[in-house]
Amino acid sequence: MTLGRKLAVGLLCFSLGITLLGLFAIVEFQRVDVAGNEIARNWLPSIRLLGVAEAGAADFRAAQFAHNLTTDSIEMARVEGQLDQHQRRIEDALSAYEPLIRLPEERARFVAISENWGEYVQRHEQIFLPLSRGGEHDAAAAELNDASSERYAALRAGLAALVDSNLAAGQAVSERGDEVLSQAYVTIVAAVAAITVLAAVVGW
Question: Which domains, ranges and CATH numbers included, belong to the chain?
């Protein structure tokens, strides 16, 4: 085989190897991109919405106590407006979060939270508000500190558990993307070395 033909064969092998390596890199980087999109489109929005619901629940609870401390009808109406706003904020956040649910255990926690919140609001409307509006402040405070307190604690615990599970799932996806990227880097470096050696041997 002439020198020119050897060089041509070596160059052909090198070009073919680089082409295959490029295709491999594209596929691997697409896998990393999928992981990044999953974090950006699911887990991060989920955590943000759960945080909104947590903050809304805390604000709702604080407004209940503020309502029970006032005897002025105008101030009471203002606080009730705040309560309505906090309730909508919580329910809007939970509604936006539901389509983002991916895991069975996440779904089960969400159902429990929704039921617990529904019971909390029902007691708020049927028991707490009539007592507070009627000036029965001790009875209203007892409602907040007993039965409603247990439901509120369960609500906060459920939301915190969902935040933790979403953080863990997002972290797992991130680590999987890092692993793919690391493996691809090692494979590409090794493949470039092997292609270079093969091209040199063939073209020798």
Answer: 3-202 (1.20.120.1730)
Angle at 185 between CA 179 and CA 187, to 5 degrees: 100
pTM exceeds 0.85 for this model? no
pLDDT tens, residue by residue, 47-57: 899 999 999 99
